[in-house]
Design goal:
Zinc Finger, Delta Prime, domain 3, alpha/beta, single chain, Rossmann fold, 16 helices, 5 strands, 3 domains, 5-stranded parallel beta sheet, 53% helix
């Protein structure tokens, strides 16, 4: 991967290029934006730009041929430290930051970041899933953010500014990332073989809210079938919230007994519902000028079109609130029941 093949985020790319060329790059960045839009890939490209031995950082064009570039692609470069939430955990754990037991402060990200760079240039850390850093872990990271090692560079990958502790936010330079454009997303859909038809890729991109994560979920056959079932239930009047809650609970439990995979599946389902109400609202707003191509879509939403704009907004806000509550470790079973019951009330407005 190089900057020529990276799609989107031109404004952020120009800002980092200018900062590097003028030697004005900050030490710590909080990279904020939705999932699946390329924030982590962007951070890795900055790392490749800084550590490439075949090109100077100011050229902002890593050669992708030297040993350093190959090591970064293979996630084996000694000066690039990457951590993410472990699959069986709900958050980044403190041991990833400062080490375990009697190895405390002698291993982990904070320790490795203070080691002398092997390349002689700099140490770079990419902390994925930064939204999940618990308060204890954040406090362990705080000293490193307050006094970063000379020449070090830290990227915290986040989806929400609000989910970061004020002490973390205040010590980072914010870099905001927007969802990908439809055209960029369509190109990525073709590149990653989610579709081999440009027209289908463009249609999928238009529905995917600028995120490759959404594309992956929408093209998963099991999830595609459940999404159809979910939409069918959401369109019913009156909305049977007991049946809805049971269907969502069953699909969530189908991924196994482990807590984190279930939470991840429920996030996907809530995102489906959010997209459903957003699409319905868009169709309603465009109803007066709808052409023949809209007729089938409008028919799919049926009685939902009777909702007024305020009810659409309320339903969208309720789905977003449920997503946020799930991130705050609210019991999934309780969350599903309350969410389904609230949607039933909203649908009667």
């Amino acid at each position: 991967m190089d900057w020529n093949s990276f799609l989107g985020h031109e404004r952020q790319r120009a800002w980092f290029r200018n900062a590097i060329q003028n030697n004005r790059l900050a030490s710590t960045f909080l990279m904020v934006g939705p999932d699946g839009i390329g924030k982590r890939t962007f951070a890795r490209l900055i790392a490749k730009t800084m550590l490439c031995t075949g090109s100077e950082p100011s050229a902002f064009a890593p050669c992708c041929r030297c040993e350093a570039c190959a090591q970064i692609d293979a996630s084996s470069h000694p000066d690039l430290i990457e951590i993410a939430r472990r699959p069986d955990k709900t958050s980044l754990i403190m041991e990833q930051l400062v080490g375990e037991g009697d190895r405390r402060m002698r291993e982990g990200l904070c320790y490795e970041l203070r080691m002398k760079p092997y390349s002689g240039r700099c140490k770079i850390a990419i902390v994925d899933d930064a939204d999940t850093i618990a308060e204890e872990g954040a406090n362990s990271l705080l000293k490193t953010l307050e006094e970063p090692p000379p020449g070090s560079l830290i990227f915290l990958i986040s989806t929400s500014v609000q989910r970061q502790l004020p002490t973390i936010r205040s010590r980072c330079q914010m870099a905001r990332f927007q969802p990908l454009t439809v055209n960029s997303l369509a190109q990525l859909i073709l590149r990653h073989a989610y579709s081999d038809n440009p027209a289908d890729a463009l249609s999928l991109a238009a529905q995917a809210s600028g995120s490759m994560s959404t594309v992956a979920n929408w093209t998963n056959e099991e999830l595609r079938m459940f999404r159809t079932e979910l939409f069918h239930q959401l369109v019913q009047r009156p909305l049977d919230f007991t049946k809805l809650a049971k269907a969502v609970q069953g699909n969530m439990e189908s991924v196994g007994t482990d807590t984190q995979p279930r939470r991840e599946r429920l996030k996907v389902i809530l995102d489906f519902a959010l997209q459903f109400y957003r699409s319905g609202m868009e169709l309603q707003l465009n109803a007066q000028s709808a052409d023949a191509s809209d007729s089938a879509a409008m028919a799919q939403f049926g009685h939902l079109m009777s909702l007024d704009s305020d009810s659409f907004v309320t339903a969208i806000q309720r789905c977003m609130a449920a997503r946020e509550h799930l991130d705050r470790m609210v019991s999934p079973a309780s969350l599903i029941e309350a969410w389904a019951a609230d949607l039933a009330v909203i649908s009667q407005a």
